[in-house]
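ok so for the tutorial part 2 we go from a plain amino acid sequence to predicted structure tokens. step 1 is just haveing the sequence, like this:
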Amino acid sequence: MAQVVISSLNKKYDEVHAVKDVNLDIRNKEFVVLVGPSGCGKTTTLRMVAGLESITSGRIMIDDTVVNDLPPMDRDIAMVFQNYALYPHMSVYDNMAFGLKMRKFAKAEIDKRVREAGDVLGIQELLKRKPRQLSGGQRQRVALGRAIVRHPRVFLFDEPLSNLDAKLRVQMRVELKKLHERLGTTAIYVTHDQVEAMTLGDRVVVMRDGRVQQVGEPLELYNQPTNRFVAGFIGSPAMNFASVRIHQESSAVWATGEGIRVKLPPAQAARLTPYSGNEVALGVRPEDMRIAAEADSGEMTIDAEVEVVERLGSEILLDVKVGAATMVASVDPTVTAKMHDRLRLSLNPDRLHFFDNTSEAAI
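step 2 — the prediction. this is what the tokens look like for a chain of 363 residues:
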């Protein structure tokens, strides 16, 4: 297995600076997910690790070896692509064995590795079939098997589940997690799906415009986002934002805006006191909002008008208008709210987030 260290990595295409000073230390046997919107540089970073893209500047090390100038076949990595890229005229067995045959492995060793991978992935009965006889999930397992037989130091995954339907993606996420636990191989995984990132990654790297925004464990990114972009990108449904003004009344600190008047708990009040008189962005997650009870203090409630009701079974999502802002609240499935209802929503005081309007950094 291997440690991957990326130092000051940059990639330019003429005038386009696609990857900007990326620094990552990926530990041995760790599953790290690069996530971000299209064009953020995550796939380009992965392809530089694989040797499929040249490096403009910086360094990539696998264990103690600098691999900047090594061809892909000498890096001891295996990559699984979004496109399964299976040879249609070959059987599953031959597709999985092809790379080993090209490297002149003994026939007995090839057979042993292919059958072991087949056992791990549960595709033993498919080894004689052709790719056209397989479902999407089965083809993805074959693509994984082709990588597993290599016994690489590092697995690289480039959005391998994006061609599958929603139910199969969930199933394959579970299978990938089990597979990683079983093989114990260092893995770098690229996706634009933050749910995929949160469920798969030991650590998650959030990227935007070629730069790393934050690196951390999934719940760390969820609970302690470093800036407004990470806060809005991690979490489903996304975090709600509204503009509020911070001001003091006697000994209390308040955040007020259209339809919003919130008294801040002591810890948050201390952080926001320097912003007194200024506007900041209030962030609150849908799951930290609920229908206010009669006994709830008005100091942690907001007035809202229901615009859309989304009944999902385990929860109800209410799209509501709060002043000029549109928010989403995740409420109990027994709630009977209808469109155009006016209601009060209670906020969890310990789960509020605030962001500087200029830097967008968390306060």
